[in-house]
Design a protein that fits this description.
The complex is a heterodimer of chains A (343) and B (496). Chain A is mostly helical and 343 residues long. Chain A is built from 14 helices and 2 strands; from the N terminus they run αααααααββααααααα. Chain B contains 17 helices and 25 strands. Classes of the chains: A mainly alpha (343), B alpha/beta (496).
Chain lengths: 343, 496
């Protein structure tokens, strides 16, 4: 019997590590390729501003809103769920933030309420999914419009404008592209929001890969029945995952406000699809069990780079949209091809 | 098929294999898991192209470009995991891909007639073509699949482990179907691990080992031992290794639905007791409620009224509490429930007990890797490493991971549901030995199986379930294969 088993072992293609490496780094490689492509195209035909530090800061800034929300979405998608309400929950948080500032609330309370609303949105999603046992797609499809409606009620179907003085300084600079290009003459200066997003990414990656909670998230997405068999508290896990994702939606809402300086609940409509696209481009599987933080970040960056690159090359907006659509499908198709090679 | 070879990377999955099936012949293809049976059949069914070799069908060259092409040419496969659509009806399933239509409009009358004719020739005219497939049992689904092959005018039908999820009764019906197909002049290839089954269904056999043809002949002129020796490449000393163990104190007590004339109380329940160091077998037909009983004890289903007592303390089972209390369960459905297929071996093995590696929720991976490596060694799990995904393992190794999980969990009561289904002879012996060792270490084991020989071979006590009720519970010495079967099928033989 030992000889047959050895034979089996040998018969499997030696895919393991090398392919695992590629699967993990695929989206990052794609990102590098796209950056390089645009840099060359821009240098030849464009204005030559694409590969500048200023533009890097703009792109990073644009990436970070989607990226932070995509961190939460990564958790949700890895656990086998989906959150369609992320976009409107995000703008609801942003609207709340605008409202609190306009009402001259203390800054700490404002931030707490903003993040709390994000969490609460996730809590409602998770609670409904776990409690009613309705599929996440339907539940969040419903809460998507609920959150939009709540936002509109809050701002009386218009837009909330806090005045310049009512917005604290750090919030002004959170997503600002205005500071000098270099600090200490050589380190590229990135907005604090980007650094915060990076910190969040490290935390989520660590949670996913180095904690018991993370193992349960993967188990839940890979096979819910197995997770149940192994004594994982499924309802609690679902609530926790969505709630945590909601926290990141709240943070992204803060970014959103910091960028626009207004609270408008309709701004986030459709944003959820960009967030989901970032995770999916980064190798997340909508059937659960697969997805990575690095992939989601790369996915968010790829979309921002394409937008920026096309702007520099003066490619009209409709063509940008088409290009991003093609990228989403191509990314998933490539992933599938790789999966087939492995099988 | 002549001189078929297939390579994957540097290794040969098949090396110059010849296979010939005549009309009206039932050929058994036997071999351990990974011997190349499935690959050979994938080549035959067009799912893979051979690297070299020739295939002929009815004397004409046969080069299927894909499964559909092969099916059209007359080669049909009945796979282990049936390829049916659960939401469609029997008729739709049978006709799927070969619908009778007029310019795209289905001709239901014609379809119905064909389906009924096929079902009739399989002696299953009781099956209503309008029933949705999800309402059928596994055995009935298999009939649907065979009917599909008949409607497509198959010349060769390949059965891949057709009985692995059937009960004795359904197996008997399947064999009569196979005989019928043979009389109709079809060539049949029958893949199985079970020699006694092969003996009943087939005329001749071919043994594959390590991608090569290890031997062939007529079943009538070869002993089981000779065939097994060909499969394994050496003599198998004992099919059912026994590790000496002695039952101790009662560890688990439960009231379960019972129905024997003696010993059942007024509310239709009967007591079930399991002692430390005891292996309790549970026999019965598929659908007799054995799986439900285990799930109930473990707390995955809420069908056990009353109470479960573990070490004298009453618990209301729920998977989490059960695990904490020392129950461990191996599911019958490896793919669907037992294992998270795209997680690694170490994740699967430790999922039910991560506490020892957790420091305030932080996972100590190095420590876990070390323990997992030890388990993989004890269980002789063959893999590339602890981080390999479970779906890439063979069935036997997957099952070992599932069992390792309950052992790693340090469960005192192991609930094993069909732990040896679909795995090869050598691994089965490993698992029997392991179960014996667990009993010797003072664990209690509940072992559900449809394979009566293994129940008789390793259990101390065997209980029989029928129609959701536990109807008989006796020491193994008092059972024979016949009495067990009788009891499971008709409830007879329950007289003390």
């Amino acid at each position: 019997m030992s000889d047959t088993c050895d034979a089996q072992q040998v018969r499997r293609p030696p895919s393991g590590k090398s392919l695992g490496f590629r699967a993990e780094w695929g989206p990052l490689l794609a990102l590098c390729a796209i950056v390089l492509l645009f840099a060359v195209l821009d240098a030849v035909w464009g204005s030559g501003r694409f590969a500048s530090i200023r533009n890097l800061r703009v792109v990073l800034n644009q990436t970070s809103i989607v990226a932070v929300a995509a961190l939460g979405m990564t958790l949700v998608i890895v656990s086998g769920g989906i959150d369609l309400s992320a976009g409107t929950a995000l703008s609801l948080s942003a609207t709340i933030m605008a409202y609190c500032l306009k009402e001259n609330w203390p800054v700490a309370a404002t931030v707490a309420v903003t993040l709390g609303v994000g969490c609460a949105c996730g809590l409602v999603n998770g609670g409904l999914i776990a409690g009613l046992r309705v599929v996440p797609f339907i539940v969040t499809l419903g809460t998507m419009t609920v959150y939009l409606g709540l936002g509109k009620i809050l701002c009386d179907e218009s837009t909330v404008f806090p005045s310049y003085e009512q917005i604290p300084g750090w919030l002004h600079s959170l997503c600002s592209t205005r500071p000098p290009d270099l600090v200490w003459q050589f380190v590229p200066n990135v907005p604090p929001g980007v650094l915060l997003a990076g910190l969040c990414a490290v935390i989520v990656a660590a949670v996913l890969h180095f904690t018991v909670f993370g193992r349960y998230v993967f188990a839940l997405g890979s096979n819910e029945m197995t997770a149940r068999l192994c004594g994982v508290n499924i309802p609690l896990m679902k609530v926790a995952v969505y709630c945590l994702a909601g926290l990141f939606t709240g943070i992204a809402g803060m970014y959103h406000f910091a960028t626009l300086k207004i609270g408008n609940p309709t701004e986030g409509v459709g944003l959820e699809l960009q967030i989901i696209a970032a995770v999916v481009i980064g190798g997340g599987s909508l059937s659960g069990g697969r997805g990575s933080v690095s992939g989601a970040l790369a996915g968010a960056a790829i979309m921002a780079v394409i937008r920026s690159g096309c702007d520099q090359l003066e490619v009209p907006n409709p063509y940008q949209e088409i290009l991003i659509g093609v990228i989403i499908i191509a990314a998933v198709a490539l992933d599938r091809l790789r999966g087939m090679q492995r099988a | 098929m002549r001189q078929i070879s297939k390579r994957f990377g540097a290794t040969h999955a098949l090396r110059h294999v010849d296979l010939q099936v005549d009309r009206g012949q039932v050929l058994a293809l036997v071999g351990e898991n990974g011997a190349g049976k499935s690959t050979l059949m994938k080549v035959l069914s067009g799912a893979m192209a051979p690297d070299s070799g020739i295939m002929e069908l009815d004397g004409r060259p046969f080069h299927p470009s894909g499964p559909h092409d092969a099916r059209q040419a007359g080669v049909a496969m009945i796979y282990q995991e049936l390829n049916l659509v659960h939401d469609l009806t029997v008729e739709d399933n049978v006709m799927l891909g070969q619908e009778c239509h007029l310019a795209g409009v289905l001709r239901h009358g014609e379809q119905r007639r064909r389906v009924l004719r096929a079902l009739e020739s399989l002696n299953h005219s009781d099956l209503d073509p309008r029933t949705p497939l999800r309402e059928l049992s596994v055995a009935q689904r298999q009939v649907v699949e065979i009917a599909r092959a008949l409607v497509s005018r198959a010349k060769v039908i390949v059965f891949d482990e057709p009985t692995s999820s059937l009960t004795q009764q359904d197996v008997d019906r399947l064999f009569s179907v196979v005989r019928q197909l043979r009389e109709q002049g079809l060539g049949i290839v029958y893949i199985s691990h079970f020699l006694e089954e092969v003996r009943r269904a087939c005329d001749d056999f071919v043994v594959l080992r390590d991608g090569q043809r290890a031997g062939s002949g007529s079943l009538a002129s070869h002993h089981d031992r000779e065939i097994v020796a060909l499969m394994v490449g050496r003599d198998v000393e004992e099919f059912f290794p026994r590790v000496p163990h002695n039952p101790g104190a009662t560890i688990l007590k439960a009231r379960v639905p019972g129905g024997s004339p003696s010993g059942s109380s007024a509310d239709g329940t009967t007591g079930l007791e399991i002692r430390r160091g005891e292996i309790l077998g549970i026999a019965g037909l598929v659908g007799a409620g054995r799986t439900e009983l285990l799930r109930g004890l473990f707390g995955l289903d809420e069908n056990i009224r009353g109470e479960v007592q573990l070490r004298g303390a009453t618990i209301t089972p729920n998977a989490r509490r059960s695990i904490q209390a020392g129950l461990g369960m191996v599911s019958e459905d490896r793919k669907g429930e037992g294992l998270a297929q795209c997680l690694s071996i170490e994740d699967n093995m430790t999922l039910s007990r991560l506490a020892p590696y957790s420091l305030l929720g932080w996972l100590r991976r190095a420590r876990r890797r070390k323990i997992v490596a030890q388990w993989m060694n004890t269980m002789s799990i063959r893999s590339r490493g602890a981080d390999q995904e479970v779906r890439e393992l063979s069935g036997g190794n997957q099952q070992k991971v599932a069992i390792a999980r309950v052992l790693h969990q340090e469960a005192d009561v192991l609930l094993l549901d069909e732990p040896t289904r679909g795995i090869d002879v050598g691994t089965k012996a490993d698992i029997y030995r392991l179960i014996g060792q667990c009993a010797a270490a003072g664990k209690a084991i509940v072992f559900v199986s449809s394979y009566l020989k293994e129940l008789l071979g390793i259990c101390d006590r065997i209980a029989v379930m029928r129609r959701g009720r536990l109807i008989a519970d006796r020491p193994t010495e008092q059972w024979t294969e016949e009495t067990l079967l009788n009891c499971a099928v008709s409830g007879e033989g329950d007289r003390e």
